[in-house]
Amino acid sequence: MKKINWGKHVVVVILVGFWLVMFVMNKNFRLGDNLASILREAATAGIAALGMTLIIIMGDFDLSIGSMVALLGIIMAGVMNTVGLIPSLIVVCVAGMVCGLVNGVIIAYFKVPAFITTLGTYYSFRAIAYILNNANTIMCTNPTFLKIGNGNIGVIPIPFVILLVLGIVLAMVLNRTVYGRNVRALGNSEKACRISGINTKRVKMLAFLLMGFCAAVSTMIITARQACASPDVAINFHFEAITVVVLGGTKLIGGEGSIFNTIIAAVLYASVSNCLNLYHVDAKWQRICMGLILLVAFSFDFIQRLVVTVRENSQKKTVQKV
Amino acid sequence: MESYIQIRNIVKQFYGVYALKDISFNIAKGSVHAIMGENGAGKSTLMKILGGVYQADGGSITIQGKEQRINNVNDSAACGISVIYQEFNLISELTVAENIYISDIPRKTFLGFVEKKKRSANAKELLEFLEIDVDPDAYVKDLTVSEKQMVEIAKSLSRNADIIIMDEPTAALNEEEVKKLEDVVNMLRKEGKTILYISHRLKEVFDMADTVTVLRNGEYVDTKPIGELNETAIIKLMVGHEIDSSINRQSYATERVLLEVYNLHLENVFAEVSFKLHAGEILGVAGLMGCGREEVLAAIYGLFQYDSGRVLLEGKEVSFKSPKDAIAHGICFLTDDRKDEGILPQMSVEENTTLISIRSAEKKLGFYVDPKSEAEQLKQMTDFMSIKYANPKQKISYLSGGNQQKVLLGRNLLLDNKVFIMLEPTRGIDVGAKEEIYSLLSQLAKEGMGIIAVFSDMNELIKVCDRAIVFCDGKVTGGLTREEFNKEKILTFAAGRKR
Amino acid sequence: MKKFILKHSDNLSLGAVIIMLFIGFSIMQPNMMTAFNIKNILVQVSLTAIAAAGMTFAYTAGVFDMSIGSILALVSVVVAKTATTYGFFIALAAAVVIAVMVGVVNGLIVTKLGIQAFAATLVTMILIRGIAVLIANGADIPLYSMEGIKFISSGTIAGIPFPIILTVLVYIFSYILYYTTVFGMKLRSVGSNADASKISGIKTNRMVIAAFVLTAVTAVLSSLIKTAQVMFGKSTIGEDFALDVMTTVILGGTLVTGGKGNLTGTLIASILIAVIKNGLNINNVNSYYQQLIIGIILIFALIVNGIKTMKNERQIRREG
Q1: Which of A110, A242, A292 sits opposite C303 (nearest CB)?
Q2: B238, B41 contact by CB (below 8 A)
C-alpha cells in the first residue's frame, strides 16, 4: 500500500473539516437532499475539471471549454429532436473530441501557445454556437435525457456517479498507463520527452481530445439540468474548472497533480457554494466569496513556503550572527 | 602585515546542513586567487556570500582593515565587489550599453530621461579598453558567450569594482576565448584589481592564478601560491586522496564496424561529415564551441533532419525520422543539459529511470504499468551503477548531480542498445563521480557497445577515448588514434579554419 | 531606408493589411470611406487602444492583467455614483484612486504572494466584479446629462473627437515612457530576466507593481469613455474586455514572454480589429461572425508567427 503523502492531499483535510463544521452548525446542511444536491453541483464543474487537470499537468491551459460547452449543447439539442437520444449523445461526444482536436492540432502541430490558441477558440466556438441557431435557445424535453442531470442511482445523483466513473478512469490512465506517464513527463520537460522518443505532438493532441470529451460529458449534464441548450451558457466555465483544479492543489506550472484531489476540490467548491445559499447570502456576495476561495487556493503555494521559512528561521536561532 | 581581504570563520547553513564550516583565509591585493574544490565543496556559496546574495550565519569579512557587513547585493557593491556568475546576469532584450549601465545609471537627467548617446559612448570606451569589438547598441541576446562575458567585465569596471569574482569563467569558452580572458585578467591585474575565481580546470589555474585556495565538503583545506603546487597535489587537496590520473585504459575496440556515416550534409550547419564507429570503441568527438559536432550527432539520432548523406547501422542503411526510430534501432542519446533536457524534476527516481524502457516492459492487461517490473528495472540500474537515493519514489531533484546523471544513463542503458551517443557525460559532476563514469564507459565498451562521446575537456577525452575525430566549422578536420593523441594536434584540427 | 523597413517589417505588414482591408470593404460598401465612418472607427479604436497601451507595459514586464474588464465595471459604477452627488472632478479623482489601488493590489499579490499573473488577476477579476455588482445593487446608475462626462465621449477639440485625442496623448506618453526613460528600460529588463535585474539592483517588485498600475490607469480611461458613451454606470460592462485587449496586444506583436513590447504594433492591431468589425458591420454581417473572424485571425496570425520563429531558429542554429 503506497504511503499517503498528506501534504499533497490538503484539500481532503479541508473538505472533511468544512463538512464537520457545517454538519454541526446547520441542520439543513445535513439533509440527504441537500448533500445530494451538493454532489450534483460538484459534477458540473468537476467533470470539466477532470480534463483540465490533465491539461494543466501537461503544462498547458484550455480557456475555451465554456465556449465548447455552449457549442456542443446547441449541436446536441439540435440533433436530439431528429435522431433520438442515444445517437445525439454519441454525436456530442464526437463533436467534443473534434473541438478538442482543433485545439490540439493548433497547439501541437502549429506550435501556437495554448493560452493564445484557446483564446482564439474561446471566441470562435461560441461565435459558431450563436450562428448555428441564430442565437436561439433549444428546448430539451426527452424525459430520459433529463434524468441524466436530475436523476439518482439510489441516493447518489447520476451526475456524481458519472464524475466518479470518469474520475477513476482518468486517474488510472494518469497514474498507471504509459500515456499518463508521458503526460506528466511532458509537463516536466518537453525536451527530455522528445529526446526519449516520446511523440509529444500525439500526447498533447490526445490530452486535448480527452478534454473535449470531458467538455461533452459536462454539456450533457448541464443541458439536462437546464432542460435547454443556449449559446450563452457556461460563460465563465473555464474559470470554475481552473478554480477547482487549483483548489485541489495541482500547480499551474504543471508536472504534477492528482485527479482524486480535483474531485474532492469539486465537492468542496460545491459545498461552499451550497453553504452560502443556505445562509441566504446574497448572490452579489457569493461572487466575492468564490473569488476569495480562489485567492486562498492560489496562495497554498505561498503558505507552504511561509511554513518552510518559519521552520528554517527557528533553526537559524542556534547560530549567532556576528 | 595585514592582508587586503581577510575571511574569518565564515559559517553558512541551509536547513540545518552546513554548506560552509569555519572558513578562514587571506586574499592579497592585486592577486589572481583561484578557489577550487569538488562540487558541493562550498565554493559557490562562499562567492554568493561575498556577493551579498546569501548572508553568512557567522564569521566576518574584513576588507582593507575594515570589517564589512554584507547583507545584500548593494552592500557588496559598496565594498567594491562585483560578481560574474556562470550563467551571467545580463538582460538579453537590452543592449550592451544598457546592460553595462544597468544599475546606477549615471547618464540621466533628473526627469528620468536617459542620455543614450553618452551612455553608448561610455560603453564603447570600456569595451575598447578591454580590446573587444562589440557594438554597444547590439542586443545582448545576439552575442556569443565570450562576448557576453566581456560585457559582464565591462559592467564591473563601470562600477569601479576593485574585487572581481568570477564563477567558472572558462566553462563555456573555447581555447581562443580562454586566451582572451587570460589577457583581460592580466590587464585587470595591472590595474590593481583583485580577482577571485572558481574553477575546475586545472590547466587554466596554472596559467592564470597566483594563489590557490582549496575547499572540501564545506571546510577549508589550504591556501598555497601556485608555484608550490602541481596538478596531483591540487587534486589530492580537493579529493582528500590521490587519484591516479594516469591509468592506462584498456581498449576494447574491435574491428567490427557498428556505425558508418558518409557525407552527411546540412546546409550552413555541417558538410561532408564521415566517420566510423566500431563495436567496443569509445570514440571521442572534439572541437571548439559551435563546430557543429552536437548538431551532427543530434541529426544522426533523428532530432532533426539532414539534407543528404548516408548512415549505416551494422551495414544496413538507416535514416531516422525521430528519436523513437533511433531508439528502436538500438541507438541512445544523452544530452549535455541534464537540468532542462534530461531529468523530469517533479517525478520520482524510478519514473525517471524507466521513462523509455517502461514502454516495452511487461504490462498488466496490456496497458497498465506493472510496478514490479518497474522496480526491477530500477534495481538493475542501481546495482549496475551504484546510484544513491533515499527511496525510489523520491523526487529526482533531491539527488546530487552525479546521481542524476547516472539515472539518465540508466534510462538509456535499460534499452537493448548498440550505440550510445553522449554529450558531455561528466559535466557538472565531481571528481569522484567522474571516475565512476569513466569506469562505466569502459565496462560498456567491454560488453561490445559503441560509444560516441563529446568532451570539451581535452584531458578527459585523451584519458577515456580510444580514438577521436575533430570538428571545425561543421566539417571533420582530423582523426587521431590513441597513439597519436596530442593536445596540440587536436587543437590544430579544431581551429582548422578562421571564421 | 532599407534597414528601417527590415526592422519594422512586422508593423508595416500589419499596416498594409489594414489599408488593403479598408479599400476592400470600401469597394463593397462605399459608405465606409466617409469621414463620419472613419471617425466612428477611430472612436471605437480608442476604447481598446488606450487599455491596450497599458497592457503592453504589463506584457513588457512579463505579466498581464485579466481584471481590466472588471475595473471597467467598477469605475463605471463608482464614477456614476459619485458624479451625481459630488460632481465631475471628485468622480474623476475617485476613478484615479481606484486605478492605483487595483494596480497596487494586483502587483502585491503577484510579487508578495508569489502567485502568477494569470492566477492573481483571475482572482481580482472575480472580486472586483463582485464589488462592482454590490455597489450597483442590481441596477444601472444613470448619469443624467452631466456635461463634463458627456464631453469625454462626444466632445470635440478642433473637430477631432475627444477619445481620439486622448488616445493620441496616451500613446505619446507611452512612447516617451517606454523608449526614453530609465523606467522604461527597467521595465524591459524585469520582463526579460527578473532574476538578473534583481541582482543588478533593480527593484523588480516595484516595477511589476508599476506595470499593473499603468494597466489599471489606462483601463480607467477606457472605462470613462465607455461610461460616457452610454451615460450610465453599469456593473455588467467589460465581460470580454480583458480578452479583447490581450488579443490586440498579442496580435500587435508584443512578445508574450516579456522584455519586448511593441506599442506601435498594439496601436495598429487595435485599428485593424476596429476596421474589420466596422467593415463587417457596414456590410451587414452578423456580429457573431465578427467574433469568429477575430478568433480565427488571432490563431492564424500566431501560426504564421510560429512558422516564422521556427525558420528563425533554424537560421540562428546555422550561424553558430
Answers
A1: A110
A2: yes
ipTM over 0.90: no
Please answer whether residues C199 and B102 qualify as being in contact, where contact means their C-beta atoms are separated by less than 8 angstroms. no
| A303 → chain C, closest CA residue | C113
Q: Is C255 on the interface with A (CB under 8 A)?
A: no
Chain B and chain C share a number of CB contacts under 8 A equal to 72
The answer to whether residue B357 is domain-embedded is: yes
d(CA C20, CA C40): 19
Indicate if B305 and B431 belong to the same structural domain: yes
Contacts A–C by Cβ distance under 8 A: 118
pLDDT at position B451: 93
Are residues B126 and B58 located together in one domain of the fold?
yes
Interface check A284 vs C, CB under 8 A: yes
Q: Pick the last residue of a domain from B181, B212, B239.
A: B239
B369 in the same domain as B450: yes
The reply to whether B316 and B383 lie within a common domain is: yes
CATH of the domain at B90: 3.40.50.300
Asked whether the beta carbons of residue A298 and residue C296 sit closer than 8 angstroms, the reply is no
With contacts defined as CB-CB under 8 Å, which chain A residues touch B368?
172, 176-177
Has domain A10-313 been given CATH number 3.30.70?
no
Angle made by CA atoms B23, B28, B32, in degrees to the nearest 5:
95
Per-residue pLDDT of chain A (322 residues; tens, 9 = 90+): 344 555 667 788 888 888 888 888 888 777 888 888 889 989 988 999 999 999 999 989 899 999 999 999 999 988 888 888 888 899 999 999 999 999 999 999 888 888 888 888 988 898 888 888 777 888 887 888 888 888 888 888 899 999 999 999 999 999 889 999 999 999 999 999 999 999 999 999 999 999 999 999 999 999 998 888 888 888 888 888 988 998 888 888 888 888 999 999 999 999 988 888 888 887 777 777 877 887 777 777 677 777 777 776 776 554 433 3
Domain count, chain B: 2
- In this structure, is residue B246 part of a structural domain? no
Say what the pLDDT of residue B497 is: 40
**The three three-digit cell numbers of residue B310, written as one number:** 548516408
Residue range of the domain that includes C161: 49-239+253-262
Bridge partners for B480 per DSSP: B468
Q: Phi/psi at B102 (nearest 5 deg)? A: -75, -40
Q: How far is CA A227 from each of CA A31, A69, A87, A89, A139, rounded to the nearest angstrom?
A: 25, 14, 18, 15, 6
Does a structural domain hold residue C106?
yes
- B439 CB-side CA count, 13 A: 9
pLDDT at B489 over 50: yes
Which of B70, B321, B333, B341 has the highest number of chain A CBs within 10 A, making it the mutation to test binding with A? B341
What's B249's DSSP letter?
A: P
Residues B233 and B306 in one domain: no
Quickly list H helices, B36-115: 43-50, 73-78, 96-100
Q: Which residue of A has its CA nearest to C292?
A: A124
Name the residue type at position B259.
Answer: L
Cell representation of residue B23 = 572558513
- A199/B323 Cβ within 8 A: no
Q: Which of C5-14, C130-139, C206-215 shows the highest mean pLDDT?
A: C206-215
C304 domain residue, yes or no: no
Taking residues C178-186, report their average pLDDT: 87
How many distinct structural domains can be found in chain C?
1
**In the structure grid, which three cell numbers stand for residue C137, read together?**
445593487
Express each pLDDT in C63-120 by its tens digit: 889 899 999 999 999 988 888 788 888 888 989 999 999 999 999 988 987 777 888 8
User: Please, are residues B151 and B141 in contact by the beta-carbon 8 Å criterion?
Assistant: no
Measured between CB atoms, does A307 come within 8 Å of chain B?
no
Residues B337 and B461 occupy one common structural domain: yes
Type of residue numbered B306: Y
Distance, CA of B101 to chain centre: 28
Range of the domain at B418: 257-494
